[in-house]
């Protein structure tokens, strides 16, 4: 059995949580509580490109906006 998170030719989604953290998620698996789809389904490459473009600051907003 192969790991669905490592399948290079599978369809993926990009998920985000309330802290704007992103995760690459295999399409077809249930979305975990606290996460929402923000992109896809698409190729792994397209999803990684979306994450690279939209999650450039890995700090959660609660840390970025702290005084």
TrEMBL record:
Protein name: Protein mbtH
Bilayer-spanning residue ranges: none
All residue ranges annotated as the MbtH-like domain in the record: 3-53
InterPro entries: MbtH-like_dom (IPR005153), MbtH-like_sf (IPR038020), MLP_fam (IPR037407)
SUPFAM superfamilies in the record: MbtH-like (SSF160582)
Organism this protein belongs to: Streptomyces alfalfae
Pfam families in the record: MbtH (PF03621)
Gene3D superfamilies xref list: Structural Genomics, Unknown Function 30-nov-00 1gh9 Mol_id
